[in-house]
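Hi,

Apologies if this is the wrong queue. I'm a grad student, and the batch job for CBS domain-containing protein from Pseudomonas borbori produced an output file that my downstream script rejects. I'm not sure whether the problem is my script or the file. Here is the sequence I used:
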Amino acid sequence: MLKSIKVRDYMTRHLVTFRSETDLFTAINRLLEHRISGAPVVDSQGHLIGLLSEGDCLRGILSGAYYESAGGDVSAYMTTEVETISPEADIIEVSERFLRGRRRRMPVVEDDRLIGQISRSDVLRAVKEFAQHDQGKILSQ
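Support response: The file is valid. Your script probably expects a header line. Output copied below for reference.
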């Protein structure tokens, strides 16, 4: 049953993260280097304080172009209202939340600390493995 598959089992644990004082252009370079469209922003204790997306970076560049002062810290451009999910949530719940929102990934937080991230593709991988496992059981009967 899909409800038995937990976010913890399929989340990515090793993430690119930024600190609030990271320079915007340094962050842009890391996003490009890792071929990702966004990353969590954490404090020194690993608490999630925001997300920085490609869109946030574009807004930072455009606002800098208007004021002739492009750049600055990630904290000036990051999104601070972040929807998170528990590692104990099941795949059905995270799927429903992905469908309700426009997000492609969601930070996983436990005890107020960022411990990973789950993406739509992680959910699809979980469902695929579940379906293959179930088909294997049927074929072996």
